[in-house]
Amino acid sequence: MKKTIVAMLVAVFATVGVATASASATPAQTDVTGVITANSVAVAGASVTVLCDGNTLMDTTDAHGSYLAVFPIAQCAFGSTVKVTAQKGGHSGVASGTVQGITTKLNLSIVNVSIPEYGLVGALTAGGAGLGIFAFVRRRQNQGSTLA
Fold first, then answer.
1. Contact indicator for 107, 46 with CB cutoff of 8 Å
2. pLDDT tens sequence across 39-76
3. Local structure of residue 66 (DSSP, 8 states)
């Protein structure tokens, strides 16, 4: 009977020791997560690219605008720089940060960044060229009237 009780106590202490050791073990991954917003509203269905130490993972935001990229610790270690790029439609944005632990949270707001209209650039160029030609012709006319 004593042997049975001792064996049970040894088994209980061994189980508690294994559970404690596994709970304190360092995870073998780095989670990069966050929320993508536009005008302070979560964006569902945005394409998200996460870059860490030359390793790239992609995700799509859920209904709450959340994304998650899970890197093996060897690909995205503590102190690494993480870059998150998100886009949906004409909206895009970029954020970066440093891996500080098991989970790195990078929230990002995407905006509609438009490229300057080529019509405006063309109009300004044409207007400047027109003024230049007008000045050239006027000068020629003035030179012609002084020769006569």
1. no
2. 999 999 999 999 999 999 999 999 999 999 999 999 99
3. E
